[in-house]
Amino acid sequence: QVQLVELGGGLVQPGGSLRLSCSASGIVFSLYVMGWYRQAPGKQRELVATITNGGTTIYADSVKGRVTISRDKTKNMVYLQMNSLKPEDTAVYYCNANFGGGARNYWGQGTQVTVSS
Hints:
The chain is an all-beta fold and about 120 residues long. The protein has strands at about 5, 10, 20-25, 35-40, 45-50, 55-60, 65-70, 75-80, 90-100, 105, 110-115.
């Protein structure tokens, strides 16, 4: 059974930092592109960042320079380090595992990130 479990969300003040973690099980981790997406109230889910097994990354323009995605092959973990957070970063953040351009696609349950003073 595939499981993606996110940890690390919470309430943070503008300008603050958070690190999200995602633990993956039930998949051959090295075969999957791992990613983080987010969905704000009333908006569609959107890409935040993705990372291949080789370390190639893609970032949304809205988070470039503030966010770093990484993965640990030995632990089947993917991380999202978010700095200089803004109120518009408030959303539910979802971990994603994608194989074969969507042939197999899995989501975590999501973790809430709220940026507010």
